[in-house]
Amino acid sequence: MKTDVLLSELQFKAVRSSGAGGQNVNKVSSKVVLTFDLNTSHALTEEEKELLTNKLASKLSNENLLIINCDEDRSQLRNKDIVTKRFLELITKSLLVPKKRKATKIPHSVIEKRIKAKRNLSEIKQNRRKPEL
């Protein structure tokens, strides 16, 4: 993954924020919408694109567009930084391939210790019973 090429492929759009905020919300376009086209990206290999398509299936649109919004701050520039950071974190986390789990065998000594403890507990409970005459 080439981060500098990836960042150059991003498209930003400033939109008016929704919700409470008074006059500032009505006149300032501080919300930033980041759009990334996964199909036309030159920064990712075909394997990376396939991996991202599978992992981010719920976040992608029908045209394989990744859309991320940010309207946390009143500053458009700050929102752009936040949404870019979120995008990079999402891509890097999605590209990580987890290590395969190796099945471990339980050591023989552990099995013996468990059986010995069971036998010991069984004897203790046997000794609590009333003797048969």
Account of the 3D structure:
The protein has a domain of 93 residues: Double Stranded RNA Binding Domain, CATH 3.30.160. The protein starts with a helix and ends in a 5-residue tail after the last helix. The protein has a 3-stranded antiparallel β-sheet, with helices on one face. It is elongated, with a radius of gyration of 29 Å. The protein is an alpha+beta fold and 133 residues long. It is built from 5 helices and 3 strands.
Briefly characterize the structure.
This protein has 133 residues and is an alpha+beta fold. It starts with a helix and ends in a 5-residue tail after the last helix. It has five helices and three strands; from the N terminus they run H-E-H-E-H-E-H-H.
CATH topology group of the domain at 3-95: Double Stranded RNA Binding Domain
Query: What's the CATH architecture name of the domain at 3-95?
Result: 2-Layer Sandwich
Number of helices: 5
Q: Within the largest sheet, what's the order of strands?
A: 1-2-3
Low-confidence spans: pLDDT under 50, at least 5 residues? none
What is the helical fraction, as a range of percent?
40-55%
- Give the distance, in angstroms, between the N- and C-terminal Cα atoms: 82 Å
User: Mean pLDDT, rounded to whole units?
Assistant: 88
Structural class: alpha+beta
User: Given the C-alpha coordinates, what overall shape results?
Assistant: elongated
Q: Briefly, what CATH class of the domain at 3-95?
A: Alpha Beta
> Beta fraction of the residues?
5-15%
The Cα radius of gyration reads 29 Å
- Helix and strand element order: HEHEHEHH
Largest sheet: 3 strands, antiparallel
Instruction: Please report the total strand number as a whole number.
Output: 3
